[in-house]
């Protein structure tokens, strides 16, 4: 059975589906110039839904994606160039959070949006672990400190010094939290480490980047948990505590919660280093 069905009567033969299909699985054939799926199209199709989404006549349906189930184009919801530019520049890593937890529905909606980030070959390998309980976030944060303490001596000492671990451990001992920043929740993006192409790492990074960028529109703030994720990849006790599927690796962690403070201006960044050829 074909993955894609094309309604001959609705199709206006414009050929946009052929031009936009990333895997070239649609062709125009016969005198009538009707689009159809190529001989190996069903095997090559990555189920990205572009044919369904780009067809002006809603002539395409996929067995996993009916045209009428796909949300329509709504130009009134597009954001302006100024809004987009400002939003990207105004994003900040947030490191002080209110104690108030974020309702599950809000985190779910944020993740639903982030799920639309691009993934290699549309594999959509990203899975999400949400550490919802603040005490659990803190318990896992302590494991990061344990890992750092274990590196104080021996071969890993240069790493310990380079990444300011002495200060981080000292800060923890004085009641601070350089690891999870007191965030009420931690989101870990993970995915299979045995895919034919390495889609999980880029997929998780891009999805978390999207999530961080979307967070302010939900009234939320976020910050990458770089130390947390490095520990999850290098310290078996934290890895075990995350309890991910056997063939999964953690590819990124992000703190999330309601920000305590508002930012009043945008800090400056380096000019981009661009070469034109
Ligand atoms: C991969 C990655 C890991 C990071 N890890 C941490 C971290 O563990 N703790 C932290 O406070 N900030 C972390 N950050 C945030 C950076 O410090 C921050 O992006 C940078 O200082 C610029 O600030 P801005 O995000 O507000 O522009 C990380 C950022 C990235 C991209």
Descriptive notes:
The protein has 277 residues and is α+β, with helices and mostly antiparallel strands. It has 2 domains: 66 residues, Alpha-Beta Plaits; 175 residues, NADH Oxidase. The protein is 36% helix and 15% strand. It is built from 11 helices and 8 strands. The strands form 3 sheets. A 4-stranded antiparallel beta sheet has the order 5-6-8-7, sandwiched between helices. A two-stranded antiparallel ribbon has the order 1-4. It has a two-stranded antiparallel ribbon with strand order 2-3. Strand 2 and strand 3 form a beta hairpin. The termini are far apart. The model has no long low-confidence stretch (mean pLDDT 95). The chain binds flavin mononucleotide. The site of flavin mononucleotide has 8 residues, from strand 7 and helix 10.
């Amino acid at each position: 059975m074909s993955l894609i069905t094309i309604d001959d009567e609705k199709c206006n033969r414009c050929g946009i589906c052929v031009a936009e299909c990333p895997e070239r699985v649609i062709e125009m054939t016969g005198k009538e110039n009707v689009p159809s799926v190529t001989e190996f199209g069903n095997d090559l199709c990555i189920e990205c839904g572009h044919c369904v989404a780009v067809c002006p006549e809603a002539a395409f349906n996929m067995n996993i994606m009916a045209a009428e189930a796909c949300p329509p184009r709504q130009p009134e919801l597009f954001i302006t160039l100024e809004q987009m530019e400002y939003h990207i520049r105004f994003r900040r890593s947030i490191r002080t959070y209110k104690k108030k937890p974020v309702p599950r529905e809000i985190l779910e909606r944020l993740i639903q949006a982030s799920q639309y980030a691009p993934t290699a070959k549309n594999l959509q390998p990203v899975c999400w672990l949400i550490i919802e309980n603040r005490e659990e976030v803190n318990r896992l944060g302590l494991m990061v400190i344990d890992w750092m303490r274990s590196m104080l001596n021996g071969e890993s000492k240069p790493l310990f010094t380079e990444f300011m671990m002495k200060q981080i451990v000292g800060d923890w001992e004085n009641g601070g939290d350089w690891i999870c920043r007191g965030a009420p929740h931690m989101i870990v993006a993970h995915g299979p480490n045995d895919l034919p192409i390495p889609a999980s790492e880029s997929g998780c990074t891009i999805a978390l980047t999207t999530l961080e960028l979307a967070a302010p529109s939900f009234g939320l703030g976020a910050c990458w948990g770089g130390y947390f994720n490095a520990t999850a990849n290098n310290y078996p006790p934290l890895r075990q505590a995350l309890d991910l599927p056997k063939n999964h690796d953690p590819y990124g962690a992000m703190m999330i919660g309601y920000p305590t403070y508002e930012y009043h201006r945008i800090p400056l960044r380096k000019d981009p280093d661009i070469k034109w050829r």
